[in-house]
Amino acid sequence: MLTSLVELRVLDGANLYFSRAAVKLTLDLTALIDAPAPAAKAYASALGLGATRPGRIGSGFRQRFAVRVVGHIVRRIAREAGIGRIGVRVRSESDVHRLVVAFPWAHEGRARALGAAIVEVVDAFGSEDLPDLVSSVGDRVRNEPAGDPPPTLRPKVPVVAVTGTNGKTTTSRMIAHIGRAAGLHVGWSSTDGVYYDGELVKYGDFSGPSGAGQVLSQPGVQLAVTETARGGILRRGVGVAYNDVSVVTNVTADHLGLGGIDTVDQLAEVKAVITKITRPRGWCVVNGDDPRTFAMRLDSPAKCWVFSRDPDSPSIRAVLDEGGRATTVLDGFITVLDQSSDAEPLLKVVDVPMTLSGLSHYNVENALAAASAALGLGLPRNAVIEGLSTFSPAENNPGRMNMYSVRDFTVVIDLAHNEAGLEALLEIMNGVRQPGGRLLLALGSPGDRADDMVAAMGAIGARGADRVVIGHKGDYLRGRPPEELEAVFREGTSSVGVDDVPSYPTELEAAKALVGEAEAGDVVAVMSLQDRASLDEWLRSEGATVDNPETLKAKVERAQH
């Protein structure tokens, strides 16, 4: 028998639908959506929904009708099972035949049984004994063994949760570094692994709930910093019941078309989950220059700490009027603002190595976010200053804006995994290019990026650089043929008049080709995801040296003059 069930997913913590553990059902309602209106109306009436208008077959109106019907089914079965009031969220998807229904759970066995019962009633479309079926499945749910409670962790140490499209890894690393400067034993999780006091504990992508569990399980941990990615929230929910500080760096197009998230607004909904579970006495740290991020403060129980590079930003005025705080750049200093006290300068932006002498606007924002989070935790001002001033791009932030001097030109290694990240990389390349120098760029993308994003990166790269090649990420193609990615990249580069775009099987080989072409004053950049370690090793074997803050400052000044 065909079933309407596409997926039943148990979410262990806060998620897109609820601020607690929930069950998410993805349903294919083709039978209901494509049924003649009288049959659809008869089905709703048999379930106790008399006054309904199904709308035209396959229409948006019919999908909205199905949203109402499915929500009613969940509540009817819950009543029959003795559950009483139950929270229900039903969301339409871009495919008019699909819906997502979610409800919170306290015991997994009974929750799974309720999910199965919902599917059984939906599958019974056209049946004549629906009331009896609802009653019988309700009894079955009532008698199902309760099962285990949610495994959501209730931390006993302060937790900072960091999310965003760009900058979340850098910001979480900065916060952890500041925590260590304050003398704390710090654990943090990210897309690169789990770290404890600067040492790698476990390698891999731990930006989901398992990362939080790994961090909080470290003996003696005093502060947990968790990078929280979109995928983990959608697949399993947030791993902790609450956090003390939430940080959202920004929201831009990335990973769209995956997991039912098709728009930037929907992506912002996912990112906002961490702000909704911030403790009321904590702080919700948001980017005041990103409207979607700034709006997240409204649904957070915590106070708002906004950051912006513009001290006259309306977002800063609004938050200060609301009794919150702000971190900005004032007269070249990273500065904290509060209505009840004088502006408090921390340190000059140019003294924060990660900002590349103030050249990297994204990293200025990341520094502002990290300072806000650390101060929101109650860490000492001196620790914030020490942490920001000693956080080195190469040593403390591998793979993000790492810069090398090779003979008489510069090489940059950076993740730059989406359009905004690539634009930030080009900003840096231009900022250190000597007069007459060229920009040589190795493009690349994982295989799960949408075609329009890959093509856009091709156009951005070809427009901004003097020479572009493609360096594939073989470990991250995710089943997509490299030739297909090449075609999409070249479609983008051709749209701006660039057709000569060779490809290489790895990031390393692409880098070797561009370094071989580089001349005095040029800047070579590689969008690197998988070959960072081998790139570093090869560059050093070629005599490359890692740029220290003084070298970077000299390059920026030389480029400006």
TrEMBL record:
Gene3D superfamilies cross-referenced by the UniProt entry: Mur ligase, C-terminal domain (3.90.190.20), Mur-like, catalytic domain (3.40.1190.10)
Family annotation (PANTHER family): CYANOPHYCIN SYNTHETASE, MUR LIGASE FAMILY MEMBER
Q: What is this protein called?
A: Cyanophycin synthetase
| Organism per entry | Kribbella sancticallisti
The record places domain Mur ligase central at 162-374
Residue ranges occupied by any Mur ligase C-terminal domain in the UniProt entry: 399-528
In this chain, composition skew of type Basic and acidic residues spans 550-561
Which residue stretches belong to region Disordered?
541-561
